[in-house]
C-alpha cells in the first residue's frame, strides 16, 4: 500500500477512543460560561443590569457611562473564571466567525502599575483592523476601516480563556459588512409588522419574536484519513474517488448505534455546548455512513444564529481533540447523501402565543390562518429571492440531488390544511353570511388542532414545509450561516404583513367592512393567488420540474443564475423599504457572493488538476509499467504465443493509456478555460465562466480518475479510498 495511505490507516487503527466523562448534570452547568441573566444580576449594579435588560427587551440605547459600569461587571465575572483576553466576536461575509484577541492586562508606559483593564469603550466599539474581510467595494481600504459594535441582545460568553463579545461589523459610513447587522434589522422589521397585525386579534401584544431551531448535519471523518486527501484539506470535499462497494443502500447507519469514538466526541461537544448555553438536545446518525446530526431547542433567531456559528467553531475544536475532522460541506462524497441545515422558523408573541400554531378557539385560528397564509404568500412573491438566499457553490451539489430539496422553491402544507384553504376559498364573494362565518370558524377552521395532531405525512422532498406549528426551510446548506436565509425569510414576511394590513385597513376604513370580514376577504384572495407555490407531490421527480415550469416557478440550478434575484428591482426595493439593507449593501453582498463562487470553483479546478496529474497519472503509469514488464516477460517465455496469454494485460495497458490521455486533454482544456475566465473584468462574468465553462470539466476528469482507481493495483493507489473514509469507525 502507498506510504501515505498506509500511514494514515495505521494511525487510525491505533486510535483509542478519547474518553470523556461529564462531571456534572447538564442542568447544573448550562450557561455557566455565559454572561446571562444570572451572572448579570450577580456582577452588575442595579442600573447597569436594568440598562442591559432595556436594550434587550425594548431596543433602548446604552449610554457610555452605563457601558463603563457594564464593562466593569463583565470583566469581574470573566476574571473570576480565569479569563485573560477579550475579543469582539463577529460574522464577516466569509461564512466563518472572526475574532481578534486583546489582553485585559495593561501597564503604564514604563511597565509600572500592571492592571486588568476593560472599559465601556472596549466593550462597545472596536476597530478590528480587518481590511482584508470581503466588503464588496463598500469599505475602501484606503479611506476608512470598519468597526465592530456590541450587540447587547446576544450575551457575551467565554470560550477557552477568552471573553467573546458578540458584535456587528459595519463600515464607518454605517453599511453592514457582516451577517448580523441586516439580520437584526430584518428581525426588527418582522417584529413591527407582525405586532401591528397581531393587534387585530389581541391588543396586548407588544412584541413578536422570530424563532429559529436549526438542525445541523455533518460528516465526521478520522483526521489522519481526511488529512491524507489534498482535496478534503483544500476544498472540504472529495473531488474524486470511486464509490465503495457498500454505500448507504442498507440504511444500516441510520438505524445503527453511534460508534464509541463518535459518542465520546458528541458527549464532549454537548458538554461544551452546555457551558456556552447552546441548548442542544438531539443527536443521531444520519442516512450516509459517518454522517450525523445535532439539533438544539429553538431560540430567538439572532441568538440561534450566533449559537449555530459558535457551534460550528466548537465542533471543529472538539473534533481535533478526538482526532476527527468535521466536514460541513453540503456534498463531501459523491453517491451518498449530502448535508443540510433545516431552519425551523416561527413567530412568537410576548404574550406566549406561537402564531403558526393552530389555536383552540375560532378567533385564534383566524390569527393562525392570517400568519400561515401570509407566510405562504411571502414565499410565493419572493420565491426567487428565497432560492438566492441559500445559493452557494457547495449547496449547488445538494439542491436537486435526489436526497435534497430541488432548486425550485415550493411550499408543502399537508392534506388537512389544503382542505381548510379550499374551504375558505369556496366562501362566496363579498360579505360572509353569519352561517358561513360560523361554519368556517367552527366546523372547518375549528378542527385544525385535532387533524394536525396526526399530521404525520411530512413530505421530506419539500424545500419549505409546514410541520404542525412552524415552517421548515430545508434547502439551507449545512455550511451556511443561517443569517442569510433568516434575513430574507423574515424580511419577506415583514413586507407581506405590512401589505396585508394595508389591504385590510382599506376594506375596513373605506368600504366599511367588519374587521373579521375584511381579514377573511383578503386571505381568500391570497389563497387564490398562491396556488402555484403549493406543492404536495414528490419534489425529486422530473415531472415536478416540468409542472413547476408551467406554473411559472423559477428553477435556478446554479449559484450564478440564482444569485441574480438578489439585485432585482423587486429585491432592492424590498430591503430598502424595510431598511434592512440599502442598494449599496445588497449590491456589495451580491458582488461578494459571485466572487466567492468564482474563487471556490477556481480552487477546486486547480486542486483537481493537481491531484489528477500528480497523483493519479503517475500512479497509473507506474502500474502500467508493471504490466508492460509482465507482458515483456511473457513474450520472453512464450514467444509468439504471448499475445493470447497476455490478452488481459494488453487490454489494461491500452485502457490505462486512454484514461491518461483523457485526463491530460481535459485538464489542459480546463486550464485554458480558467485562463479565459481570469481575464474577465467583472466578478459576475467570472462566476458565469467558472460555472459554465470550467466546472463541466470536473465530472469528465473525475470519471477518468475513478475508472483508473478501479484498474490500478490497490497497493499503489496513493489516495485514501471512499471505503476507508466512510467506513472507518
Ligand atoms: P424533525 O423535523 O427532525 O422531525 P422536530 O419537528 O421535533 O424534528 O423539530 C425540529 C426542530 O424544530 C428542533 O430543532 C426544534 O427546536 C425546532 N422547533 C420546534 N418548534 C419551533 C418553533 N416554534 N420555532 C422554531 N423552531 C422550532
Ligand atoms: Mg427537520
Automatic annotation (TrEMBL):
Against SUPFAM superfamilies, the record matches this protein to: Glutamine synthetase/guanido kinase
Give start and end of each GS catalytic domain: 179-616
Q: Which Gene3D superfamilies does the record cross-reference, listed alphabetically? A: 1.20.120.1560, Glutamine synthetase/guanido kinase, catalytic domain
Q: Looking at the Swiss-Prot or TrEMBL record, what is one Pfam family this protein matches?
A: Gln-synt_C-ter
Matches recorded under InterPro entries: Gln-synt_C, Gln_synt_N, Gln_synth/guanido_kin_cat_dom, Gln_synth_cat_dom, Gln_synth_gly_rich_site, GS_Type-3, GSIII_N
Start and end residues of each GS beta-grasp domain: 84-174
UniProt xrefs under PANTHER family? GLUTAMINE SYNTHETASE, TYPE-3 GLUTAMINE SYNTHETASE
Q: Which family does it belong to?
A: Belongs to the glutamine synthetase family.
Q: What name appears for this protein in its UniProt entry?
A: Glutamine synthetase type III
Q: What organism does this protein naturally occur in?
A: Flavobacterium ichthyis
Amino acid at each position: 500500500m502507498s506510504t501515505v495511505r498506509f500511514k494514515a490507516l495505521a494511525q487510525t487503527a491505533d486510535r483509542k477512543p478519547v474518553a470523556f466523562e461529564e462531571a456534572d448534570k447538564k442542568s447544573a452547568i448550562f450557561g455557566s460560561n455565559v454572561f446571562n441573566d444570572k451572572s448579570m444580576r450577580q456582577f452588575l449594579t442595579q442600573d447597569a443590569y436594568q440598562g442591559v435588560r432595556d436594550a434587550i427587551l425594548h431596543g433602548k440605547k446604552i449610554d457610555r457611562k452605563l457601558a463603563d459600569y457594564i464593562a466593569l461587571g463583565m470583566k469581574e465575572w470573566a476574571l473570576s473564571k480565569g479569563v485573560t483576553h477579550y475579543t469582539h466576536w463577529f460574522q464577516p461575509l466569509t461564512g466563518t466567525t472572526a475574532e481578534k484577541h486583546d489582553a485585559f492586562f495593561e501597564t503604564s508606559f514604563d511597565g509600572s502599575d500592571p492592571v486588568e483593564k476593560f472599559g465601556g469603550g472596549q466593550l462597545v466599539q472596536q476597530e478590528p483592523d480587518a481590511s482584508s474581510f470581503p466588503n464588496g467595494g463598500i469599505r475602501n481600504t484606503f479611506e476608512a476601516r470598519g468597526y465592530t459594535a456590541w450587540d447587547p441582545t446576544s450575551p457575551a460568553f467565554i470560550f477557552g480563556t477568552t471573553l467573546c463579545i458578540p458584535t456587528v461589523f459595519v463600515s464607518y459610513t454605517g453599511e453592514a459588512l457582516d451577517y448580523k447587522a441586516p439580520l437584526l434589522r430584518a428581525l426588527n422589521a418582522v417584529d413591527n409588522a407582525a405586532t401591528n397585525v397581531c393587534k387585530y386579534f389581541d391588543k396586548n401584544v407588544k412584541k413578536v419574536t422570530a424563532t429559529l431551531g436549526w438542525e445541523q448535519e455533518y460528516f465526521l471523518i478520522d483526521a489522519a484519513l481526511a488529512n491524507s486527501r489534498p482535496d478534503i484539506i483544500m476544498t472540504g470535499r472529495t473531488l474524486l474517488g470511486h464509490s465503495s462497494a457498500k454505500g448507504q443502500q442498507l440504511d444500516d447507519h441510520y438505524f445503527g448505534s453511534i460508534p464509541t469514538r463518535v459518542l465520546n466526541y458528541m458527549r464532549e461537544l454537548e458538554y461544551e455546548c452546555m457551558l456556552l448555553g447552546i441548548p442542544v438536545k438531539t443527536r443521531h446518525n444520519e442516512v450516509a455512513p459517518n454522517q450525523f446530526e445535532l439539533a438544539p431547542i429553538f431560540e430567538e433567531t439572532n441568538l440561534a444564529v450566533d449559537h449555530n456559528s459558535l457551534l460550528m467553531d466548537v465542533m471543529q475544536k472538539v473534533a481535533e481533540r478526538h482526532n476527527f475532522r468535521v466536514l460541513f460541506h453540503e456534498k463531501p462524497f459523491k453517491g451518498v447523501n449530502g448535508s443540510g441545515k433545516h431552519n425551523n422558523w416561527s413567530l412568537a408573541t410576548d404574550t406566549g402565543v406561537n402564531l403558526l400554531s393552530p389555536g383552540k378557539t375560532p378567533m385564534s385560528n383566524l390569527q393562525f390562518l392570517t400568519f400561515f397564509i401570509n407566510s405562504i404568500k411571502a414565499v410565493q412573491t419572493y420565491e426567487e429571492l428565497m432560492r438566492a438566499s441559500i445559493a452557494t457553490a457547495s449547496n449547488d451539489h445538494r439542491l436537486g440531488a435526489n436526497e435534497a430539496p430541488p432548486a425550485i422553491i415550493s411550499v408543502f402544507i399537508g392534506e388537512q390544511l389544503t382542505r381548510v384553504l379550499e374551504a375558505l376559498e369556496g366562501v362566496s364573494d363579498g360579505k360572509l353570511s353569519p352561517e358561513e362565518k360560523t361554519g368556517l370558524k367552527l366546523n372547518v377552521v375549528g378542527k385544525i388542532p385535532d387533524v394536525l395532531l396526526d399530521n404525520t405525512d411530512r413530505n421530506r422532498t419539500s424545500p419549505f414545509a409546514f410541520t404542525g406549528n412552524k415552517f421548515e426551510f430545508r434547502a439551507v446548506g449545512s455550511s451556511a450561516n443561517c443569517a442569510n436565509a433568516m434575513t430574507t425569510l423574515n424580511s419577506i414576511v415583514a413586507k407581506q404583513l405590512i401589505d396585508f394590513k394595508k389591504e385590510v385597513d382599506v376594506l375596513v376604513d373605506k368600504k366599511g367592512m367588519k374587521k373579521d370580514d375584511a381579514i377573511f376577504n383578503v386571505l381568500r384572495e391570497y389563497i387564490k393567488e398562491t396556488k402555484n407555490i403549493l406543492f404536495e407531490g414528490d419534489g425529486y421527480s422530473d415531472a415536478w420540474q416540468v409542472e413547476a415550469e408551467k406554473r411559472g416557478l423559477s428553477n435556478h440550478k446554479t449559484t450564478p443564475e440564482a444569485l441574480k434575484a438578489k439585485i432585482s428591482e423587486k429585491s432592492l426595493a424590498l430591503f430598502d423599504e424595510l431598511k434592512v439593507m440599502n442598494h449599496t449593501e445588497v449590491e456589495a453582498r451580491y458582488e461578494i457572493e459571485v466572487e466567492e463562487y468564482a474563487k471556490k470553483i477556481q480552487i477546486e479546478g486547480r486542486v483537481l488538476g493537481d491531484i489528477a496529474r500528480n497523483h493519479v497519472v503517475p500512479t497509473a503509469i507506474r502500474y502500467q509499467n508493471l504490466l508492460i514488464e509482465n507482458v515483456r516477460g511473457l513474450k520472453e517465455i512464450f514467444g509468439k504465443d504471448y499475445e493470447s496469454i497476455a490478452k488481459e494485460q494488453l487490454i489494461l495497458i491500452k485502457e490505462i493509456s486512454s484514461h491518461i490521455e483523457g485526463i491530460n486533454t481535459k485538464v489542459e482544456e480546463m486550464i485554458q478555460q480558467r485562463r479565459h475566465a481570469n481575464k474577465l473584468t467583472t466578478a459576475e462574468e467570472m462566476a458565469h465562466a467558472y460555472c459554465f465553462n470550467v466546472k463541466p470539466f470536473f465530472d469528465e476528469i473525475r470519471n477518468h480518475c475513478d475508472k483508473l482507481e478501479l484498474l490500478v493495483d490497490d497497493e499503489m493507489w496513493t489516495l485514501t479510498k471512499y471505503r476507508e473514509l466512510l467506513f472507518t469507525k
